Amino acid sequence: MFRIVLVLCFYTLIYVNSEAGVLGKSEGARRQLQFGFQVPSIQHVIPEKVYLTSRIPSDLMLESGQLEGPRRGGHVDSLRWRCAMARGTWCGQYRRQVSQLPRPAPRGFKECPNQCSGWGNCNYDSGICECPAGRGGTDCGQDIKRPCTNRFRHPHEFNSPVVGHIGPDKHDLNPRAPGWQASRCYGYCADDIALCICGYNSTFRHIPAPPDAPPWSPPLQWGRPMTDSCMIGHDKDGTVLDWGRPYLKYEDIYGPNGWCNSRDSDMKCGCAWDGNGWPCDGSRLYEPFCVNQCTGHGDCYMGFCRCHPGWYGSDCSRKKAGMEIDEGFLRRPWLQKTVVVPPASLPVPPVRVHPRPLIYVYDMPPVYHSRMLQYRIGADACMWRRFTESNGTYLLSMTYSVEVYLHEMMLQSEHRTYDPEEADFFYVPMYITCYMWPVLGWADFPWWHAPFAHSRPMHVANMILEAHEWLSTNFPWWNRRNGRDHIWLMAPDEGACYMPSVVYNTSIILTHWGRMGPEHKSGSAYEQDNYDMAMPLKMFAGWKGFDWVNKTRPHPCYDPEKDLVIPAFKSPQHFSASPLLGTPPFERDILLYFRGDIGAGRRPEYSRGIRQKLFRLAHDGDWATKYKIFIGTGELIPGSYTEHLARSKFCLVAPGDGWSPRAEDAVLHGCIPLVVMDQVHAVFESILSWESFSVRIREDDQALAAIPELLTGISPERVAKLQRNLVRVWHRFTYATGPLLRQTYRDVLVRNAEVHPPALLNASYMLPPRVSPFRPNRDFPFEEDAFSTIIQWLYHKINETRHG
């Protein structure tokens, strides 16, 4: 390998060539993709960062000026600061409330059928059993299996049970039979959740509990999991298995030194399920994730809370009427770092400083939330936090984890009420994107309703219709105001575009995708998410739910009058180089920055073609050299993403398959968003004056080509004003609610203060306002984070839900 290095005036452009020489047209043609375009083999090497203080003349550094708001270790407790850049009248009203002493929460006493067969939790408010994976029916007495399989049901099998490919011994019926599905198993299939575990007579095989064991009896031996990556491609006799990994031999898994027989095998299949510590055989368990960790009053099983006797609710936070409230597991040190006992659940609830809005969180059937976590298999999937093997806690950066995070914060919130009669709003928790991936299509269950994996919107729409029917028939609260006070989160790429009209038209929708207008077509380049695809109606004529399309039209994807575009979840580590988290500011020597998917190998509708066009314009016009504009992938622009953003004046905000969290990336780094998405609201754009801290241009080719001229033509004074306004709102674009996040933010602030020289920090604290608004924060305005912003907006919406 050799490199031709062209040293340019500002940045270094490296052409990476093959060993045979410069990449020629013939080889380039062989690399053409079915969709999209070939990415040039180049790298833009951005030089080392420069701290802003080193660029400021000493006479300016001697200026003394009053430092603003939160940057000097104490927040200006005024509505002027709190409501900076707010649009409309929503901000401030929440803070003017008079504190109240709440009423003790009502406690239910309705018994459930057959005591839920010893498997489920009885909800003493409704008298409804809440069943874990593997159980169903009104009393959880019915087996609801999810067997490992080699195929889905065929269209003509609409009256057939779920298809599996395992025998009574839970092993594959015939490993040589063709057919791949992700759950297919050359071992023991735990068919409650379609988890493949070592089997046969191996050392680390699964040994189930005896058949007559009572409910929840643990297996005699859990055994080691075997995920999709460990599907054997050759059986014991050497016969090729067309559904396995061709490079994996029988000996790799079941030989004397294989994964299922040797503790120190060279083959590693991973511990897979949440709570399973090394050596991954179930012998060392740690705390798995459950919402609010069952409030210390239940045992967590891969996401499902099995409540202790008398306790109930999806988070086990309530005690049956007449029973004494006990402490449970709340003294466990690792729970103290994550669990919040909902104030309303206490025998004597504390004074509510900001009493409203009051939000009732439905205990939805587990199939819509906790069962998704049981089915997810991979421990990181769908999560925003997890425990380590020593029961420490750490944050994840899963793209769609806001579903679980928002549910958990609603459960912990001081605004939660257990009395639906006094509720201002009703939150409907559903883990929709967790179902879309990784649950859907892993096995032949669950579906909503046909086994048609090619349309994820169909399943989502039917799931919501089913949930709406359950709400409206079991409780009076939906019908009371026709759902106007009900809150749903729609986190898929295209948000609520294909949400059923009966729910969308009246409910409050929290979404990441602010596309406006009633006429819309799917813009996803991922075919399974194309909600306009032609449905094979005749093929699936006997199946329920294929009429979903007519039930989702016509309505917009987002209505700024009733809905809200909220931030995606970002851990503090994602923007650790930002002055918002205490890092001394860098010189902003990059004019425009975007690093990510540029649409290579994608269908042309991806990003509405915006990213693709801009990459071609930037590459063909050598914008990196001429203007310090960088648009490319991580391979083309190596280096620290957070540092690059913190060095940029402008950052591109453009769609992906729908929403993309680029607005959050920009704002959290103090980078002025350059918004390129027509008729689409960015995060909080309906309630914040985005024009005060961003620049928006049209999507058309002429506007895109003129970006260098536009940005270089913006005066330094205008840039400085946009930056000053950005600093006044950037904390609203991240979630900092909850004990774990609050402590993490404090830890990052302390760490950033420790790793930088005191002289650099002190100089950065003293930067004059006319030089830069980006002085490093010493603390964080927790009461004005993204979750708090949503709560304040909801308070403003209370009266609107009463009249419709």
Concise account of the structure shown:
Helices cover 21% and strands 12% of the residues. The chain is an alpha/beta fold and 804 residues long. The longest helix has 19 residues, at 456-474.
Task: Pick out its properties.
804 residues; alpha/beta; five-stranded parallel beta sheet; 21 helices; 27 strands; disordered N terminus
Walk me through the topology.
Elements: E1 3-7, E2 12-16, H1 25-30, E3 42-45, H2 58-61, H3 79-82, E4 121-123, E5 128-130, E6 134-136, E7 142-144, E8 188-190, E9 195-197, H4 250-254, E10 298-301, E11 304-307, E12 311-312, E13 318-319, H5 333-336, E14 359-361, H6 370-375, E15 385-387, E16 393-395, H7 402-412, E17 425-428, H8 432-439, H9 456-474, H10 477-481, E18 486-490, H11 501-504, E19 508-511, E20 514-515, E21 564-565, E22 590-595, H12 610-620, H13 623-627, E23 629-632, H14 641-646, E24 648-653, H15 662-668, E25 672-675, E26 680-681, E27 695-696, H16 701-705, H17 707-712, H18 716-727, H19 739-755, H20 758-765, H21 786-802
Parallel strand pairs: 14-17, 17-18, 18-19, 19-21, 22-23, 22-24, 24-25, 25-27
Antiparallel strand pairs: 1-2, 2-3, 4-5, 6-7, 8-9, 10-11, 12-13, 15-16, 20-26
